[in-house]
Amino acid sequence: MNKYDVIIIGMGPSSIFCAYEMTKLNKNKKILLIEQGKRVEQRNCPIEKLGKCVKCKPYCNITSGFSGAGAFSDGKLSLYNKDDEDIYVGGNLHKYIGVEETKKLIDYTDEIYLKFGADSRLEGTQYPEEVKELKNKAKKEDLTLIDIPIRHLGTEKAHELYGKLEQYLEENGIDMMFETKVEDLIIKDGEVKGVKIIDAKNNNLKDIKEVYSDKVVIAIGRKGANWLVDMCEKHNIDTKAGVVDIGIRYELPDKVMEKVNKYMYEGKFVGRPGPFKDKVRTFCQNPSGFVSAEVYDNNLSLVNGHSYKERKSENTNLAILVSHNFTYPFNKPIEYGRNVAKNLNELGNGNIVVQRLGDIFRGKRTWEEELKNNSVVPTLKSAVPGDITFAIGYRTMTDILQFIRSLDKVVEGFANPDNLLYGPEIKFYSNQLIIDENFETSIKGLYSIGDGGGMTRGLMMASASGVQMARILND
C-alpha cells in the first residue's frame, strides 16, 4: 500500500511552508505534496512574447504550479505593526490562534523568507509622519488607510526564492507529484483515508490511482475554489457561506500615486461608500507595475497585476474590490462571480476588457482609437477596449465609482478620466470551510489551510498557516 503520514493537496505558500516546517520538526515523516501545475522553473506565461493570452493547457501557468498564483502576481509579504492590537490584513488566522501567537508566527515565517533570499528592506516604515497625514486626510472622506510594513519580493525574485524552497524540499525527502490532479478524496465513515489522483495532462479517468494517508491537508488556494465546493457537496463537509470580491484592476500614472508609493509602497484604502455601504477596498498595489491576465477553470480570464524588482513601467496598478456577502436564500457566491466573469469575457471575445474612466462617466464604451490616444498607456496589450458596465452589476459599479471619487480627494488625480479600468478582477474564496482550532474539518483527519478554504488572504498569512499546520500535525 502506497501510504504517507501526511498528504498535502496543492503547492502554494501554505503547502510549501507546512512541508518546510515538517522537515524541521520530524524528518522521518513521509510527506507527499500534489500539484496540478508545473515545477516553478517550468512556469512561464507566453503573453509577454505573443502579446495575447493563449490559455495554456491543461492549466494556466500563472495560477497553477509550485508557489501558487499569489507568488506570480507581485510577491508582497504583508507584516504588522508591533503596537497593533489586532491583525488588519491577511484573513482569519489570528481568530484561531490569537493575535500575539499570529505575530510570533509571522516573525518566524518572515525569517524563513529572508533565509531563502527575500529583500531585507521593509517598505512603509520610513515616513511615519507623512503616512499619518495621509491617514487623516483619508479619514475626512470616510476612508480608512491601513499601513503595515511590506516586504516586496518582486515577481522575478519570487521565482528565484520559491525555486530554492522547491530544491530544499526535494533534498530533504519531501515527495512531490507535479501535473497531477486530485480527482477525489477517499472518505469512509467520516474519516479521510487518502486521495484519488490522475495525470492532469491526459485526464483519463481509467488511470485513476489511489494514495493513502490518515491525514490530508487541503491547501488549494483560490484556484481550487470550484473543486473544493464540489468536494464539500459530495462528502458533506461542513461549510458556511463565503465572500466573493468582485471588482476591477485600476491603472493610473505613477506620478499620481507618487506619495503613496514612496511612503508606503502599497496603500490599503477601505471604505463603505453610499448608498449601499458595501465594503470596498484597494488591494495588491503595484508601483511601476504591469497589468496581467490569468486563466481559471473553464477558460475564465481574470485580470491581476504585478511588479518586478528590475523591470519598470510608468504606471501603478491596483485592484478595487467590492465584497459581496449574500443572504438567504442565495448561497452560491462563486457561481455569481463566475457569471460576472463569463459575461465580461464574452464582451471581450475571451479577453480582458479595458475602459477609460471618463468614458464610463459619459455612458459610452471605449474604442480602439481612443485607447491609442489615451495619456495612460495600457500595460496589458491583449486587453480589448469596450464597456465594462454591461457586465458588472449596477450596485458593484456604483460602489467602485463612488469609491474612486472619494479617493480622488485624498490622492489628487485618482479620478482622472484617462485612468483605466480592466475587468474582471474577482477573488474566489470558496464557501468557507468550518474548522476547529487545529484546522480540522468535520471529516476526521482532513485539514484546511491557506486562501482556498477561506482562512487566509495573501502570501504571508498563507505561509504562516502552513507553519502552524505542521506544528499541529507534529504534536
The average pLDDT score comes to 92
Radius of gyration: 22 Å
Q: Uncertain regions: pLDDT < 50 for 5+ in a row?
A: none
Reported for the largest beta sheet, the result is:
8 strands, mixed
Major sheet strand order: 4-13-14-17-12-20-18-19
Measure the end-to-end span: 25 Å
Helix count, DSSP H or I runs of 4 or more residues: 13
Range of strand content: 15-25%
Task: Report the strand count.
Answer: 22
What is the percent of helical residues?
Answer: 25-40%
Rough outline:
globular
Which class of secondary structure composition applies to the elements?
A: alpha+beta
Provide a quick synopsis of the model:
With 475 residues, the chain is an alpha+beta fold.
Task: Looking at this protein, list some descriptive labels.
13 helices; 5-stranded parallel sheet; 475 residues; 30% helix; alpha+beta
Descriptive account of the structure:
The protein is an alpha+beta fold and 475 residues long. 30% of the residues lie in helices and 24% in strands. It has 13 helices and 22 strands. The protein has helices spanning 13-25, 47-50, 93-97, 99-115, 128-140, 155-171, 225-235, 258-264, 333-347, 357-361, 368-372, 394-408, 459-474; strands at 6-9, 31-34, 76-78, 143-146, 150-152, 175-177, 180-188, 191-199, 209-212, 216-218, 239-240, 244-253, 268-271, 280-286, 290-296, 300-306, 315-324, 353-356, 384-385, 420-428, 432-433, 446-448. The strands form six sheets. An eight-stranded mixed beta sheet has the order 4-13-14-17-12-20-18-19. A five-stranded parallel beta sheet has the order 6-2-1-10-22, with no helix packed on it. A three-stranded antiparallel beta sheet has the order 7-8-9, with no helix packed on it. The radius of gyration is 22 Å and the shape is globular. The relative contact order is 0.19. The mean pLDDT is 92.
